[in-house]
Amino acid sequence: MGGRLINSSTSLPDAKSSLVADSSVLQICGGHSLAGHVHISGAKNSALVIMAGTLLCSGDCRIRNVPFLADVERMAEVLSALGLRLHREGDILDVNAREITTSKAPYELVTQLRASFFAIGPILARLGVAQMPLPGGCAIGARPVDLHVRGLQSMGAEVQIEHGICHASLPGGNGKLKGAKIYLDTPSVGATETLMMAATLAEGETIIENAAKEPEVVDLANFCNSMGAKIQGAGTSKITIVGVSQLHSTDYTIIPDRIEAGTFLLAAAITRSELTLSPVAPDHLFPVIAKLQEIGVEIIEEAPDRLRILPAKTLKAINIDTLPHPGFPTDMQAPFMALLTLAEGDSIINESVFENRLRHASELNRLGADIRVKGNTAFVKGVPMLSGAPVIGTDLRASAALVIAGLAAQGTTTIQGLHHLDRGYDRLDYKLQELGAKITRLKDTSANVDVTDHGNSTPISAIVP
């Protein structure tokens, strides 16, 4: 049975009064310091793939610490269209995947959300057939699905891509995937997750070499293991999965979002503010913390899941190279560029993960930054100050970078393209308001009144049977 969208049963205002992100803007009056404590939400990239992972379970799954994001809503719609029954209350999502009523995911949803493509592995493992449109998401560079396809083929699947649809099936239509040795040409997070999920219900042992090591991969493995899967080695370059006949119900809590935590650390650093953040996993933030310390920022681990950042007297220029985990995360590249615009000296940022992820440089220059881009490298010359201006977020993390820059800029910054921001940050504007930022969400770029507060800024929905 499909689900239907209703308002979440939380204390938040009615989602029916929420603004459409495409027609709203953020207006930031910069130059104000922040103070207080910020609660870090569950990890976006864990939540999405774990939601896909519920397709493996023939019972009920309860997922805790699910963030309020547009992408989470889209994934819920994808699962509902596949026949799952979902109910959300607060940050708890209950999923009943006893029946998958169709093997074909809806084109109009999958093409908007890249992570929904990862469901091809669980659907194929459960039903022996899957039809998945090629994915969408932020336009930050080529992220082909060939590693997914080759991996599934190694496990015995027949896979063809026709007219934008990936068709996967098992010979005979009712067999099982077979364990295999798979080598990934690059440590793709998506391919690692897709193949790891598929292998949980395959016959025999699957070994994934050159696997992605990201914390979200480990989180997915822990989730699957909590349902009875047999996965070892997650977080290393070699993951071993011994297939089981079926997976059982579970109650699982998602890890904190390391990218959201890093974003708030940068917001504090650029505004010379003192903040505390929790819950966090400091080990997941090590590259970000190390670079902030190199810049001149002091960060204190007050508790195993709590950090305090102190104001820096000066910000020093540094160099950054993005790399797969445990290297510096590409998702933090744009927010760090915003911070380095005000650092003393010249910084160099080399984006080695995606080839089209420096478009925010031109928007930061609108705010008075001095950034020159050559290929996949940005040369950032620190300036004494930024000035507010109208700008447009070109992707999720670029939008966050503009928010960070706007917090420090003198005057008013107006940011369009909030559909990107709302995909990956759980009520970022509201959390910043709570810390003292002068940030509001307006209905359109021409309005200076009719301000909407947090409660109406991001649609908060739930799926019920």
Question: What can you tell me about this protein's structure?
Answer:
The protein has 465 residues and is α+β, with helices and mostly antiparallel strands. It folds into two domains: 7-40 and 256-459, Enolpyruvate transferase domain (UDP-n-acetylglucosamine1-carboxyvinyl-transferase, Chain, Alpha-beta prism), CATH 3.65.10; 44-253, UDP-n-acetylglucosamine1-carboxyvinyl-transferase, Chain, CATH 3.65.10.10. It has 14 helices and 25 strands. It has helices spanning 44-53, 70-81, 107-110, 120-127, 146-154, 189-199, 215-226, 258-270, 286-295, 333-340, 360-366, 396-408, 418-424, 428-434; strands at residues 4-7, 25-29, 35-39, 60-64, 85-89, 92-96, 129-133, 158-162, 165-169, 181-183, 205-209, 230-232, 238-242, 250-253, 274-278, 298-303, 306-310, 319-321, 346-350, 370-374, 377-381, 390-392, 412-416, 438-442, 461-464. The chain has a four-stranded mixed sheet with strand order 22-23-2-24, covered by helices on one side. Strand 12 (230-232) and strand 13 form a beta hairpin. Helix 4 (120-127) packs parallel to helix 6 (189-199). It is elongated. The N and C termini lie close together (7 Å). Mean pLDDT is 88; it is low at 1-21, 137-143 and 447-465.
